């Protein structure tokens, strides 16, 4: 995750589209529709299939075996296995999912050292793609995969899968990481309305607290959720230019803009009664539990709101809450001039070049594969040829439209752009520093100093 910046230096072509996306999201995010029939049809004999007018042709691969590694668990893993099963059915290849651990680069390193690398890996940090290329693990995409990618993806999504001008990654999965989900019964009981500004969010939190419910659930045991909090506040408050500079470490974490963002975050993190279990409880709560505890317990859940991306739907689905009715969502409120939009994603990268591996990545670049997982929920694709009807409800359809409406104008998750040692390793770097800040939100200066020290070491080494 995730959720969920390939070469840190090539990503800057992205432009923010916060106003466009937030506006589109705000229109009908809380609507809920029924499921739609999948309009894809498949020709099992030829391996040629159609979805939304697009066609992908796959070779026969009887007798071949593929291993695919990803840091996906629970419903996300189960749904992806459904996609792999379809590839297996169409080609005859045998496909095995390999559960990976964070950080996946370390996991892959041990596999490669042991002579058993998976054929394909889903890399959740674009910076990890560059590391895989630099270490000569990753293999460039072949002509068929590149053609499918060019047909279905905007240039911006293609570019973040490139290293040194060569295409290595296919962004199979995307995430809108600028959303706050809320328990509709709690909001109703607190006479709450969906906030559009940070101050309105603070007011809503106080109203929820006064109604007898803790306002926020935070999955602080997973440091990446805290980086997402920071990035949304920072992008909206400091603006896209500063965001890009900090993402590239062209300005230091001791910059006044970082102080301002941390001070703003402390308006929530610094109120222990606003956080389910207090800071210590949050630091023992993993992301899935932070979501489910917001939507269980009737009108007295452990919290009224939980911040995270569209992928939280998978966890909401594990409760009895109905998305669009019991569980609703609003865009992350504007802290500065406009609401932020932060995206993430997972890219398929080939580690063992073969006809079968190339065919699988070609399939993952097609609307066929994305439509299968879209129908299962908790998933967004940057593939522009996935039909709206592939998504199971109006909430997801609007999220997908908003994502695609940005075109090439988006801001990618900042921590995913950083070297993994800083932005993507449990117990280290930004993840650990923000966990410490959640524990002690009064230490803004100390947190900045630690962030800068860790960032300087990681960017200096490129690791």
Automatic annotation (TrEMBL):
Protein name: Extracellular solute-binding protein
Keywords: Signal, Transport
Organism per entry: Streptomyces cynarae
SUPFAM superfamilies from the UniProt entry: Periplasmic binding protein-like II
Lineage, opening ranks: Bacteria, Bacillati, Actinomycetota, Actinomycetes, Kitasatosporales
One Pfam family here: SBP_bac_8
Record's signal peptide: 1-33
Similarity field: Belongs to the bacterial solute-binding protein 1 family.
Chain segments carrying region Disordered: 35-57
């Amino acid at each position: 995750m995730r959720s969920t910046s390939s070469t840190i230096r090539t990503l800057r072509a992205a432009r923010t589209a916060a106003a466009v996306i937030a506006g589109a999201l705000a229109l009908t995010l809380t609507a809920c529709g029924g499921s739609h029939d999948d309009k894809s049809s498949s020709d099992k004999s030829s391996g040629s299939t159609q979805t939304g007018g697009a066609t992908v042709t796959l070779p026969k691969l009887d007798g071949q075996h593929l291993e695919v590694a990803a840091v996906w668990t629970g419903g996300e893993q189960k749904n992806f296995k459904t996609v792999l099963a379809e590839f297996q059915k169409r080609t005859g290849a045998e496909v095995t999912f390999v559960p990976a651990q964070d950080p996946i680069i370390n996991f892959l390193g041990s596999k490669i050292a042991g002579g058993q690398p998976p054929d394909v890996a889903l890399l959740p940090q674009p910076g990890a793609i560059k590391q895989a290329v630099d270490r000569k693990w990753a293999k460039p995409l072949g002509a068929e995969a590149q053609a499918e990618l060019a047909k279905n993806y905007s240039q911006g999504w293609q570019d973040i899968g490139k290293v040194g001008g060569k295409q290595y990654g296919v962004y199979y999965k995307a995430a809108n990481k600028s959303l706050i989900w809320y328990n509709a019964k709690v909001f109703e009981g607190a006479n709450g309305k969906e906030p559009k500004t940070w101050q309105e969010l603070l007011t809503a939190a106080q109203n929820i607290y006064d109604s007898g419910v803790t306002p926020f659930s935070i999955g602080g045991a997973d440091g990446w959720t805290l980086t997402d909090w920071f990035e949304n506040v920072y992008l909206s408050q400091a603006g896209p230019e500063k965001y890009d500079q900090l993402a590239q470490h062209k300005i230091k974490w001791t910059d006044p803009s970082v102080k301002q963002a941390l001070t703003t975050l402390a308006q929530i993190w610094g109120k222990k009664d606003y956080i389910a279990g207090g800071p210590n409880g949050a630091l023992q709560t993993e992301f899935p539990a932070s979501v489910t505890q917001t939507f269980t317990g009737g009108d007295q859940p452990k919290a009224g709101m939980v911040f995270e991306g569209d992928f939280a739907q998978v966890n909401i689905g594990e409760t009895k809450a109905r998305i669009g009715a019991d569980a609703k969502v609003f865009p992350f409120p504007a802290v500065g001039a406009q609401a932020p939009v932060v995206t993430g994603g997972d890219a398929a990268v080939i580690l063992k070049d073969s006809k079968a591996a190339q065919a699988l990545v070609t399939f993952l670049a097609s609307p066929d594969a994305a439509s299968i997982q879209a129908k299962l929920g908790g998933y967004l694709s940057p593939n522009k040829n996935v039909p709206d009807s592939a998504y199971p409800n109006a909430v997801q359809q609007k999220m997908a439209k908003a994502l695609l409406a940005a075109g090439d104008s988006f801001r990618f998750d900042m921590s995913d752009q950083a070297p993994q040692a800083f932005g993507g390793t449990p117990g280290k770097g930004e993840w650990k520093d923000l966990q410490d800040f959640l524990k002690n939100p009064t230490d803004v200066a100390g947190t900045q100093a630690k962030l800068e020290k860790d960032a300087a070491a990681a960017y200096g080494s490129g690791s």
